[in-house]
Amino acid sequence: MRFTLLMLVFLLANQRLAWATDDYTQSIEQWRTDRVESLKKPDGWFSYAGSGIVNLGKSTIGSADSNTIVLPRGPAHLGTLIVDKAGSATFRAERGSGATIDGQPIKGKVKLKDNAGGAKPTRIDIGDTWFYLVRMNDLIGWRFRDPQSAQRQSFTGIDTFAIDPSWRIEADWQAFEPAHEIELMTIINTLEKAPVPGKAVFERDGQRFELQPVLEDDGQLFFIFTDQTSGKETYPAARFLYADPARDGKLVLDFNKAFNPPCALSPHVVCPTAPPENRLKLRVAAGEKTYRAAAH
User: Fold this and answer.
1) How many angstroms separate the CA atoms of 109 and 245, rounded?
2) Distances in Å between the alpha carbon of 14 and those of 5, 9, 148, 163?
3) Residue 24 in this model has a pLDDT that exceeds 50
4) Under a CB-based contact definition with an 8 Å cutoff, are residues 39 and 265 in contact?
5) In the chain, pLDDT over 70 holds for what percent of residues?
6) Where does 45-162 have alpha helices with state H?
7) Which residues pair with 220 in a beta bridge?
8) I need a labelling partner for 200 at 20 to 30 A (CA). Which of 22, 63, 88, 215 fits?
């Protein structure tokens, strides 16, 4: 009788573990489904269809090759952009271009805002496409979004490693007092400063590893890392991973949710690369693999 009870307890414990594993697997599958659906949205990363640097002075914009800024789609001549030495930008629409701002036709010369200081850039709409400016330190860039882009239309998903619950790791959190500041190198060799509040310390295969996150405005911890799959099975510059703030000196690093940065999906986006502190000498066989775009 005692042996039977012990067996029953053992079987129930195994069943509970199986249920927990199934629930976890389903949660990661749902996370991946939501990720793909977000990328399919008209304003997702695949809607980026054009980009470049804006020079000081006068630039003409449009789909005709004679323009300074050549758009992949839209009117032959959209308008004229002027950027002064202080970085202030003004735009005048070409007559008949159909360009609007906030649903209103553009009349005369208008000042364009970029994303400096977290501001919302002025969006110039042309049908279902739109054009706007971005600031990257001392550079001003332009972006063109097109929901009908070939990249978005052909996107079906991203290859991933098999879901492995062992890559959901509870790490120790060591806060920095005061917080550090780190300089992140982007894929175009510009520098971006970011606050680093501490480091996550964990063990894998009997070895100790550390990762330092950037603190997001909403309190989330944002990890930019590479590992021994980088450049082979995963994107060379970095993969991204979010984690909730630490509680009682612990936080969870779920590498099954490691994902490609936007620049791995589109050539029209600038992303930070992994800092030296986050280059793991470890093969992280979890999360997203390198995105392979469909042939067009």
Assistant:
1) 46
2) 14, 9, 50, 19
3) yes
4) yes
5) 92
6) 150-154
7) none
8) 22
Residue position matching structure tokens 């003409």 = 60
- Cβ atoms of residues 225 and 235 within 8 Å: no
Q: What integer pLDDT is reported at residue 270 of this predicted model?
A: 87
Distance (Å) of CA 258 to CA 163, 200, 218: 11, 15, 19
Residue 200 CA to residue 209 CA, distance in Å, equals 8
Kindly provide the b/e burial profile for residues 98-137, where b requires at least 16 CB atoms within 10 angstroms of the residue's own CB.
ebbbeeeebeeebebbbeeeeeebbebbbeebbbbbbbee
pLDDT of residue 219: 92
- Each domain of the chain, given as residue ranges in start order, spans 45-153, 156-296
Task: Please tell me the distance from the alpha carbon of residue 24 to that of residue 131, in angstroms, as a whole number.
Answer: 41
CA dist 246 and 220 (Å) reads 10
Domain 45-153 bears CATH identifier 2.60.200.20: yes
Give the number of residues written for the chain: 296
pLDDT of 257 above 50: yes
Query: For residue 76, is it left (φ>0), alpha (ψ between -120 and 50) or beta?
Result: alpha
Query: Angle at CA 44, nearest 5°, toward 130 and 59?
Result: 30
Q: Give the DSSP letter string of 101-119.
A: ETTEE--SEEEE--SGGGP
